[in-house]
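Thanks for the sequence, V.! I ran protein-tyrosine-phosphatase right away. Repeating your input here for the record:
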Amino acid sequence: MPVDQPPPTNNAHLPPPLPPPHSTSISSSSTSPSLPADGLSEALQNQARISPQPAHPLAPVIEESQTISADSITPAELGARLGRKPAPLLIDTRNYDEYEHCRIRDSINVNLPTLLVKRYKRGTISTFNLDSFIATDEGKRYYAEWERTRARSKASHDFVIYDETMSLQTEASHAWILVAVLQKLFVDVHVLTLRGGFEAFRRWDTEAKHLIPQSHLYHQASKQHWAPPVFENTLKLPPPMQSRSATTRSITPIDTSNVQRRASLFSLDTSGPHSAAPHLPKRRMQRAFGKDNTLTCIGEKDTPSLANDVSEVLKGFLFLGPELSGTPQIAELHAYHIRRVLNMAEELDDDIPGLKESFRYHKIAAKDTVDMQGVEKMLRRAVIVIDEAKRAQEPIYVHCKAGKSRSVAAILAYLVQSERWTLKDAYKHVIKARPGISPNIGFIAELMKLEKKTLGKVSNFADLQIE
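Predicted structure:
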């Protein structure tokens, strides 16, 4: 998102001091229910405590010894501070979809992975870098500039942290854990909470003076069929690559020869899964988890091999495949009008001449192992990259080593979280577009958690069949 810089001012016109802050704290009750063992948000149940003697000076530990307390600021008081110097750093800890839908201007979205939160609970994290958990590139840049300004200034600076409601009556949220962490690490910054959270600020700002709503274009993009971008009739495109498998249907490039030039409307038909490979023979397959912990197919002798081909998952927009090994593959991407590349493989650098100059390139270093750490964060970052491509109206190619596991997990996460497909429907759709996919069971487990969080239900893979 573009960062709106506050108007210039001088020290003679600094804002008046805030009224005395309101102290807020979370404490436990002797009648609290027993605490579940998994996950901070479930475990705290109206309690969030910081040990006075953590395992490491930078490692807050959640224990029953000291309450988390913080001064709070009302929506009206925050509104009076916005646009003035020194600007507070607004940290929005809601999930990315909510943040993208509507947010306070100049706020950054921060999400702590569940794994990290669990480790903070156990006191096993020794360092904390806020930049690592900022969800967008724009947010990272804004935070870096805010830090530079803070380093140069002698004025007092504030963090303002919030989620949807900052309620003290619900389970302690990641927002409250972040309050505790920042209080520990940033002794020279005043950590505040927004009283009533984002919802209270939205109700207060009735004219949406400080709010940025979801763009109209992006809203349309999730509900309508995409008209492909139109190019000049004189544009010379390389021919599509000959398929490396005689039995594989190659993707036909978009024909622009008879299309009049007009402004493109980027909208995508995501009302439900549709086959991206309608000419493949109908087949009935049963899925099972194999000994190698991958989701494998039983009876696929006549399945076409797509090992070296680009597969079209969502028509004209989302493509899936293996590593890029040379300039012929680059030409193939150009033929499909692809503008962005997302590399999901830790071991691949895509050092192909012209690749990173011709495409907007992203890399998320994922390992194809069942015990990979940080899978939730990896999937969340991948969804953000694909979402940004959609907003920019730029087709994207997602790949890993073989186009079967890590890249598939990224695309499944996008279909579930952004397009609201069930995981089962998303899996059926992707395997029709690219037979032979086999995301490892660790990725599937994390995707099922994502589905539960996003849709409130979990798909059953035990008897998955594809007609």
